[in-house]
Amino acid sequence: MHIMIIGAAGMIGRKLTKECIEARAQLDGKNLSLTLVDIVEPSKPEGVDPGITIQTIKADFSDQKTATILANLTADIIYHLAAVVSGEAESNFDKGYAANVSASWQFLEAIRKTNTTPKFIFSSSLAVYGPPFSETITDNQCLRPSSSYGTQKTIVEYLISDYTRKGFIQGLTLRLPTIVVRPGVPNAAASSFLSSIIREPLAGEKAILPVEVNERAWISSPGIAVKNLVHAAILKPAKLKGISTINLPGITVSIEQMMEAVISTGGNSLSKLIIKEKNEMIENIVCSWPYKFDTTVAKNLKFIKDSDINSIVDQYIKEHS
Ligand SMILES: NC(=O)c1ccc[n+]([C@@H]2O[C@H](COP(=O)([O-])OP(=O)(O)OC[C@H]3O[C@@H](n4cnc5c(N)ncnc54)[C@H](O)[C@@H]3O)[C@@H](O)[C@H]2O)c1
Prior knowledge:
The two termini are about 35 Å apart. The strands form three sheets. A seven-stranded parallel beta sheet has the order 3-2-1-4-5-6-10, with helices on both faces. The protein has a three-stranded mixed beta sheet with strand order 7-9-11. Strands 8-12 form a two-stranded parallel sheet. It has about 325 residues and is an alpha/beta fold. The chain has helices at about 10-20, 25-30, 65-70, 85-90, 95-110, 150-165, 195-200, 220-235, 235-240, 255-265, 280-285, 295-300, 310-320; strands at about 1-5, 35-40, 55-60, 75-80, 120-125, 170-175, 180, 205-210, 215-220, 245, 250-255, 275. Strand 5, helix 6 and strand 6 form a beta-alpha-beta unit. Helix 10 packs across helix 13. It is globular. It folds into two domains: about 1-175 and about 220-245, Rossmann fold, CATH 3.40.50.720; about 190-215 and about 250-290 and about 305-320, Alpha-Beta Complex (UDP-galactose 4-epimerase, domain 1). Nicotinamide-adenine-dinucleotide binds near residues 13, 40, 61, 62 and 187.
């Protein structure tokens, strides 16, 4: 089985690469081959069984020639994770549409011309929803994005549904909750602070909190998110019964609960490292996202979720200290 990950050098891409290797038996016991693509050189995980072939490609998938070359590698499963994330897509309109919409459409076109019908798994976001929405988002909630990023994800979701309906790909869009705790440094996502307020205090550093403490968020740990991405690759198309978009399970957590989880791990003094500094741009984007979901479809398809915020923090500490 040949798996291609576009956006492989990113936070989710790197974890997904490892998860695919770990889940090798479920994916394809013998002939697993991975093609890791990113505009930044993707790194090969170390100590991998020599029976697994890994090639890395440093390339911009929004370039037409590159898109054709990648499509012609005819992977069985393509994960499309590459994106200009929410904060940057909002501040740089042209860049967001070029990378998130035009490039994705061009890539889908290149795949269509190969006549290979790969599984195409796309990482979308709860940013496809915006107010007004019902208190609990169900699988049937209409899409009403209130950011450029959310609009761009919505457009690609629809393209994937139509290309799937036409039999050009076997598309599956997974709407990921916000991923917390993101390791490393903050990125350009408007929701980046949700990780910073945990990660930075635990490292003895200050973090800016740009929204009120009673705000809530729909989150998932990186570990559970990549398990769900692999589960999507394993799912038999018949089980999907025509579904091409799924809201992944997550947990609802308030900022206050996140701060409590940090304090319960590292002590009261850590609360002083979280500095309240209102930011309207971030507040307008992140607080327009829903935080409560009924993910019946995902649960029936055996997608999984974290148990609580404390276990997410514990998992982060275990992996990164
Ligand atoms: N992290 C989250 O909280 C979250 C939540 C919902 C959805 N998502 C989606 O999941 C995906 C992965 O998220 P992430 O947190 O790993 O983001 P990330 O920014 O860490 O990774 C994205 C990767 O895409 C690459 N990329 C961007 N443009 C490219 C191009 N033109 N050609 C090749 N590579 C390109 C980047 O270099 C980066 O390595 C994104 O599509 C994001 O929108 C993430």
